[in-house]
Amino acid sequence: MKQKIVAYKTLPADVTEYLREHLDVTFVDASDTEAFAAALKDADGAIGASVKVTPAMLEGSRIKALSTISVGYDQFDVPDLTQRGIVLAHTPDVLTESTADTVFSLILASARRVVELADWVKAGHWKASIGPAQFGVDVQGKTLGIVGLGRIGGAVARRAALGFNMKVLYTNRSANEVAEREYGARRVELDELLASADFVCLQVPLSDATRHMIGAAELQKMKKSAILINASRGAIVDEKALIAALEAGTIHGAGLDVFEKEPVDPASPLLRMPNVVALPHIGSATHETRHAMARCAAENLVAALSGTLGNNIVNREVLAR
Ligand code: NAP
């Protein structure tokens, strides 16, 4: 008999077909928390994204593997999963380049005021040759500070150093030797990065150690001319402090793909600021990459449930139990 799994996100048809070749698949609408929790109680595994899976939802279940269609795994209590013997798989690498493209589009759009000025043209304001009131700032040749230079940060560093002749600074707990060698990236303390960078780009995972890593004190340390780019997780930044800093002119602007609460409140002051570019969490959202992520997550789940998964495991310790 096939093992049962719950899919809590719509999947491409060919990925569903692949899963059904190996497993008994039930789709559930995860916005119905009770139905989702009930479905988990009668499953061996689950696949999905963007929904919190709490220890309470797993209590009394026989779940052996969870597969998230994302690289970030902040929707899970990883130590709890490990203690329950549940393998958690994720989808690194396949989304790295698309997400780095999103980061770079935020850098360019913020610096060159692309969204603001495109709206200005559409509103019929372009009546004469433009002047300094419409000028932006250069990206090429500037200093980029990457907070968390891992897979995505590395792809951003490559674009910056090789494509835009930028100087790259970064913070990490450990050195990224490839980025240092190939892109001239220099590892510095966070304070030095904040004080020197023209663009501060956040690419750390969300954890207890990184939550509100950028608050009022850190924003104060940035250059008045600097632009903050966040395409990691909203809660890395204290959003209230960011709003205050933008209102006070402490920093020049922000490019945001993620927010503390998503979807962002339409009444958020951030959405009224011309110097803020706001995107609806589109980091990896291309047809090609989202398909590759779904396929990767499906393969992870099938392998995890057959005991053959060798990579893409968040809590490798669980295998040693
Ligand atoms: P990764 O390869 O693990 O890179 C994360 C980097 O952050 C590593 O270099 C790591 O280096 C550093 N780091 C981790 N904890 C830290 C801490 N406490 N202090 C300082 N640095 C720390 O992950 P990735 O694949 O690049 O993805 C990064 C994050 O991007 C994901 O977790 C996800 O939240 C986000 N993301 C967002 C989107 C989107 O749609 N906007 C799409 C994909 C990913 P050390 O371990 O040496 O510290």
UniProtKB/TrEMBL annotation:
Catalytic reactions on record: glycolate + NADP(+) = glyoxylate + NADPH + H(+); (R)-glycerate + NAD(+) = 3-hydroxypyruvate + NADH + H(+); (R)-glycerate + NADP(+) = 3-hydroxypyruvate + NADPH + H(+)
Protein's UniProt keywords contain Oxidoreductase: yes
A Pfam family matched in the record: 2-Hacid_dh_C
Every D-isomer specific 2-hydroxyacid dehydrogenase catalytic domain range: 5-315
Sample GO molecular function, one term: hydroxypyruvate reductase [NAD(P)H] activity
EC number per UniProt: 1.1.1.79, 1.1.1.81
Keywords for this protein: Oxidoreductase
Family the entry assigns: Belongs to the D-isomer specific 2-hydroxyacid dehydrogenase family. GhrB subfamily.
Protein name: Glyoxylate/hydroxypyruvate reductase B
Native species: Paraburkholderia pallida
